[in-house]
Amino acid sequence: MPIAAEPADATLIARVLAGDDRMAFAALVRRHQSAVRSLLRRLTGGQHALADDLAQETFLQAYRKLAQFRADARFSTWLHRIATNAWLQHLRARRIELSLDDVPAVDEGLAADDEAPRADLQLDMNRAFAVLSPAERAAIVQCYHLDMSHEEAAAALGCPVGTLKSHISRGKQKLKARLRAWELAS
């Protein structure tokens, strides 16, 4: 007996909208929850509990607003936009501002060994990532960690492609400046 193919997102969405089919929505959640959680974990700097809470909020918002979904973009792109907005709303609600003063600088006078511990690199990456503005962080996560095209990322973030490219450029400059010690050690 051949295995039945999973219904497409559009089919599941239609079932939810036609009859409030919660099983169809549960299938959408199962299909997309890993990517949404991954996005939010990167945006929150690895705060798993916060990312999971924001993922839950993302899917609640998606369920409430499913009738507003226009199929001019992929459903996953639409979910990523909701997730990013949930993260930004979290930042605004707590008036969290990220700045260079909040994160200790990498000591550029330190000579790194050829085989620097991976944990040190990860710590420095997290510190460098923390100096990015929310828009810069979101743009870099969408394009480099989720491997979205500039057009997809711009759609997910609700901004023009040119603005997205500006956020990426500024973010990369900040990351490069913060990680200069690793570059010198290479």
UniProtKB/TrEMBL annotation:
InterPro entries cross-referenced by the UniProt entry: RNA_pol_sigma-70-like, RNA_pol_sigma-70_dom, RNA_pol_sigma70_ECF_CS, RNA_pol_sigma70_r2, RNA_pol_sigma70_r4_t2, RNA_pol_sigma_r2, RNA_pol_sigma_r3/r4-like, WH-like_DNA-bd_sf
Domain RNA polymerase sigma-70 region: 28-95
GO molecular function terms attached to this record: DNA binding; sigma factor activity
SUPFAM superfamilies per the UniProt record, alphabetical: Sigma2 domain of RNA polymerase sigma factors, Sigma3 and sigma4 domains of RNA polymerase sigma factors
Pfam assignment, any one: Sigma70_r2
Keyword Manganese: no
Keywords: DNA-binding, Sigma factor, Transcription, Transcription regulation
The name this protein goes by in its record: RNA polymerase sigma factor
Assigned protein family: Belongs to the sigma-70 factor family. ECF subfamily.
Matching PROSITE patterns: SIGMA70_ECF
Entry annotated with the keyword Transcription regulation: yes
Record GO biological process: DNA-templated transcription initiation
Coiled-coil region list: none
Domain called RNA polymerase sigma factor 70 region 4 type: residue spans: 127-175
